[in-house]
Write a structure and sequence with these properties.
single chain; 2 domains
């Protein structure tokens, strides 16, 4: 039995692998190779692989600040305090990024607006801008006017996955509004001569 099979995450990892290969086979294989070649100091490589495959398979939320709400506890008071401090600082940073994204006139926000349909809901637009702002800060996009920065390299699997999720969300918003416009459009019937409906002039 291999080291991976001895992990408590083996069963969940296999399930995540199947979902990932069904959805993104190339990305799934690349994630597997990258994790096995560079395990770092991880004590449970299967747990790391499982978490990464969940991202590829789309079983985690697209929200890039979801980790702020993830459960992380410790029985040690000093670690509890440190975790609370890190969460507080990170939450403040995320809030700052969100406010800036919604109030600034940066070039990247204007380009996002240029790609969004005019009928988009304000709430959906705000959520997208906030998530892109977090992405840009995390990956140090800097002053690049392109909302998601330069294309990612093959080995940047985590950033590539974040980028893919945001692009998918943008496409979803575009198609949703377009679909609503087609559905709600009122079809005006062609003019019907009065003589055809029994009227006499």
């Amino acid at each position: 039995m291999s080291i991976l099979e001895c992990s408590p995450s083996w069963g969940a990892g296999v399930a995540a692998w199947r979902r990932a290969t069904a959805r993104e086979p190339v990305a799934a294989v690349a994630t597997l190779k990258h994790t096995l070649r560079r395990p770092g100091d991880a004590k449970d490589v299967m747990a790391v692989l499982h978490a990464r495959l969940r991202l590829v398979g789309g079983t985690t939320s697209a929200g890039h600040d979801d980790w702020l709400h993830a459960e992380l506890t410790s029985s040690r008071p000093d670690l509890k305090y440190m975790i609370a401090q890190v969460r507080r600082l990170a939450a403040a940073r995320v809030q700052e990024l969100k406010v800036r994204a919604l109030t600034s006139a940066d070039t990247w926000t204007q380009r996002v607006d240029g790609r969004l349909p005019s009928g988009i809901k304000a709430m959906d637009r705000s959520a997208l801008l906030e998530q892109i702002a977090i992405y840009r800060d995390r990956w140090q996009i800097g002053d690049d006017p392109d909302p998601l920065g330069h294309p990612t390299a093959d080995y940047e699997w985590e950033r590539a996955n974040d980028r893919r999720q945001l692009e998918a969300e943008l496409s979803r918003l575009q198609s949703t509004v377009a679909s609503c416009n087609r559905t709600t459009a009122v079809k005006v019937p062609a003019a019907v001569p009065l003589t055809n409906v029994g009227w006499e002039i």
